[in-house]
Specification:
38% helix, globular, 8 strands, 8-stranded mixed β-sheet, alpha/beta
């Protein structure tokens, strides 16, 4: 850690205490308070939002926020934002703020499904919920006033759920997903990359990622490993165009690198973007010039994808 030099203008993350217990009551309470802050927050950037219900895979109800500009363009393709957080975090105020920025700057509707998380359920339920939400949004596109295609935006463990959903949608045929943007993706349940040993005490410690996978998979590898941990999918062909962003000082760095290599080998149109001097969760420093430029780059790529 002594050799890490964050980009100019960044303060860097606050190290997580080594004594933290990820399954403790205090840890769960912290996530609940973050979700409560999201529920109590107000729309920003001249947007409006509502909370709807989507029908899931087995008829269950999936809550979902819809964030949109005051005057949304009818028939425009939408963004489905699958949030991250070690498979256990519920939607946060930051997620809604970021969705408001996307809606305002890109003039599109942003859907944020509140999939069930791994403090309550285990794999495959979170993927089922995300896939169910994607299907429901597509089926109700006339009601929502959106186009036939959607872009997925996801970070960290959310990127795992997004990629798993894209793989499932491809298998079903006629996938509505035309683009996916995966930020600091968490994809390898075996934490096999060298970056896990290179940055074990970075912003998100290797120990937390290992706990997150064990909790999500209920302590065992499932038979369909490529669905649960999509870095191990057997086949990546015919996936949508993919934008991958990796943070330089992140134990998840090699997950992004390995995914990019696999997509290229499968002939998928993929881009790999390394954020130099960055770390997992750098968006917290949103008022710095570094993060403003990083977010502008993401928005520009999303704008292009939505227009295609």
């Amino acid at each position: 850690m002594d050799s890490i030099q964050y980009a100019s203008g960044l303060s860097g993350p606050q190290p997580m205490p080594e004594t933290v217990r990820y399954d403790s009551a205090a840890f769960r309470l912290a996530y609940k308070m973050m979700h409560l802050a999201a529920r109590l927050s107000r729309p920003e950037h001249g947007t409006k939002r509502r909370r709807i219900k989507l029908r899931g895979e087995r008829g269950e109800s999936i809550p979902c926020y819809v964030v949109e500009p005051e005057k949304a363009q009818e028939g425009k393709n939408c963004i489905v934002y699958i949030h991250g957080g070690a498979f256990v975090a519920e939607l946060s105020k930051f997620n809604l703020q970021l969705a408001s920025t996307f809606a305002s700057e890109l003039g599109c509707k942003v859907f944020l499904p509140e999939y069930r998380t791994a403090f309550r359920v285990k794999y495959p339920v979170p993927v089922d919920d995300c896939m169910g939400a994607i299907r429901a949004i597509r089926e109700r596109r006339a009601e929502f006033g959106i186009g036939e295609r959607m872009a997925l935006y996801a970070e960290s463990s959310g990127a795992c759920l997004a990629l798993a959903s894209a793989l499932r949608a491809r298998e079903e045929g006629n996938s509505p997903i035309s683009y996916q943007m995966l930020i600091a993706p968490c994809l390898d349940c075996r934490t096999s990359g060298e970056s896990y040993r290179q940055f074990p005490r970075a912003a998100i410690p290797t120990s937390m990622i290992q706990w997150a996978w064990s909790n999500y998979l209920d302590g065992k590898e499932p038979e369909n490993l490529g669905d649960a941990s999509p870095l191990y999918a057997d086949d990546f062909h015919s996936l949508p165009k993919t934008y991958i962003e990796a943070e330089e000082f992140d134990c998840l760095l090699d997950d992004a690198k390995m995914l990019y290599q696999k997509l290229c080998e499968a002939g998928v149109d993929a881009e790999y973007h390394l954020a130099p001097g960055s770390y997992h969760g750098v968006e917290a420093e949103i008022n710095t010039e570094y993060v403003k430029k990083l977010m502008a780059k993401r928005r520009a790529a999303l704008a292009k994808a939505l227009a295609e």
